Amino acid sequence: MRRRFLIALSIFVIVLGLSLFFDFYTLPKGKPLQPPSYQYPLGTYIDGSNMINVNAKAIVNTLLFGGLVGLGEVLLAITYGSIAGAYGGVVRSTMVRVIDALNSLPRLPLLLSVALFYGIPTGNSLKANFFLTILIVMLTGWNIYARQITEMVYASSIGKSTRRVVGKVDLGLILKNMKRQATNLLIPSSIDGISTYTGMGVIGGVGDPNYPTLTTLLNTASHLLYDWWMFLVPAVFRGIVLVILLVLGDEVRRL
């Protein structure tokens, strides 16, 4: 394996491991909005919670959101794209037009509009169920990758052999191709999920208090500019997580 991939993977495992640990292991609380100190290295939250625990929980929820969205988008894109690309003809033309129609929709305004139906306005924010938001983000993002997979399968020998000899398809080759595409797309689609949720949070204040993410912390700290640890630390962690995912995504495609 490439050295860069192993380094990025090691850092990711360490960050995830520490986040999971401090998500379950609760450190002592203190007075609300205490700056970083020897007792509270990352300061305290608005309710006095140790910011180590708060950030750890936010990292876990951010990765959980991105991972579930990525998995769902990849499964839908691989399935849809493989069918459209393999059979070609009228089937492909019709299915591709559906994808193009979905890709033409303004995704973020659409997501915010849908969120208004199941979300609960709370002043400047919109309380929206975490897992329901995952579902709508996933259902509006898979089409981005389905178009690519359709063309790849259609142009490949797998697609050609399928169209010529229906019923005598080399399923082994198809499954191998699908596995490779799924591996390549999982991390980018996870990043897409995280970025989309960030957009929903920044523009529409969409979030779930029961599953705070790094974006939720940034939104909470938007009116607490003097309490720099409230927004600077989550912003740094968010940057670290995204950089690691981007590097892993690049390295996975090269393996």
TrEMBL record:
UniProt protein name: Peptide ABC transporter permease
What keyword terms does UniProt attach to this protein?
Answer: Membrane, Transmembrane, Transmembrane helix
Quick one: where is this thing mainly located?
Answer: membrane
- Membrane association type: Multi-pass membrane protein
- GO CC annotation terms, alphabetical: membrane
Question: Does the record carry Membrane as a key word?
Answer: yes
| Location within or outside the cell | Membrane
The residues that cross the membrane are 58-80, 101-120, 126-145, 185-206, 226-248
